[in-house]
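Progress report, Aim 2. The chain analyzed during this reporting quarter is listed below.
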Amino acid sequence: MSKDRKHIIIIGAGFGGLYSAKELLKGNKNYKVTIIDSRNFHLFQPLLYQVATAQLAPEDIAYPIRAIFEKNKNITVLKEKVSSVDLDNMFINVDCGKLYYDKLIISVGVIPEYFGNANWQEVAPPLKTLEDALKIRRKILNVFERAESEMLHPCDENPLNFVVIGGGPTGIELSGALAELSKYTLKNEFRKIKPERAKIYLIEAGNSILNGFPKKLQLAAKKSLENLGITIKSNSKVIKIDAVKVEIETNGSTEIIESKVVLWAAGVKGNFANSILSTNNNIKFDKKGRVLVENNLTIPNYRDVYVVGDFANIADEKGMPLPGTAPVAMQQGTFAAKHIKGKSSKEFKYFNKGSLAVIGRNAAVADFGTFHISGFFAWVLWVVVHIGYLIGFNNRVLVLIKWAWSYFVRKSTSRIIYRSDMRSLRK
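Predicted structure tokens for the chain:
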């Protein structure tokens, strides 16, 4: 490679990082690009809940980063952990040493926020990584297996309850998928228990689920969830979580819900704040630990450093921070790359193509500003959009076939509990 090529480092192979790299490499050989991630695959996070509820296998929503860029000779992929960034001297530190850059794009995402209750994470796992999804899948399936074993010496049937905390898109997707798993997928497979008697509770601290969606769609989602038998508890604050129960407070009254599976979908915060980036460089963070960036996605006083995706805080035209969604990260990643190439406007403007959330089979909601739809047509649109965004032709075909199979027969084959996971039957 020519030494006069600008070296651009991208930290993170999520949507922001991936779309930055793709745009930089479009018909351009003037850049030497290094993309760094602690994992060797790109994860399609919008479908992570389907791995967690045994609808898809991990390989269906993950794709090797090297395979994405195998035809691009001027990009290097490193499976490394970035420990720090020296903004003044323009290099990053990884396990194997220093890497100098001319331009830097940071797209490291967010991590779960437990609001001062970090000890809850062990019993109420989040859903942010592939490891999280597999842990949740193991917990869910093991609860049904354990319940079947316990019935060999039955006294009273133990509660078969599941609690999902957080009524945003992830929370309702998890709740709906759990309801369909218990009522349809596992039906008739057990002899001592009836999986369909499982109860799913969705806990939301706010007034309504899907905060930010129009009231009409909030009500449509609520109705669809209730039709699946899900109990929604809004205005409910979680007070305590342990291995067997959740304690909530609703309008001044406390309630205890017995449950061996509690899933966390209630909040996130900035990743790597004060680690990769430091306030010592006069960088400002919001209360969630996200970087306050300029209108062109750069860090104040460091015009060669861009922050994109969930880790960036930038407001829309109404002064509200943009949501941490895949479309936002994609557009920001593309903008940052074009800005480096001198082919974009001075300011980033998010083009809102709409918001989608799926509840279950034939049920979803779609918000396109002045145009709202729910039900079957919203669900079809959700399917088309997610197939389109999946990385890799093989992934698209496999997921489409699995969805079609599941749609007609209501069965899934991704319900394997590996031998190494059997110890958690008692957990």
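Residues 270 and 420 are 33 Å apart (CA to CA). The chain has nine helices and 25 strands. These observations will guide the mutagenesis work planned for the next reporting period.
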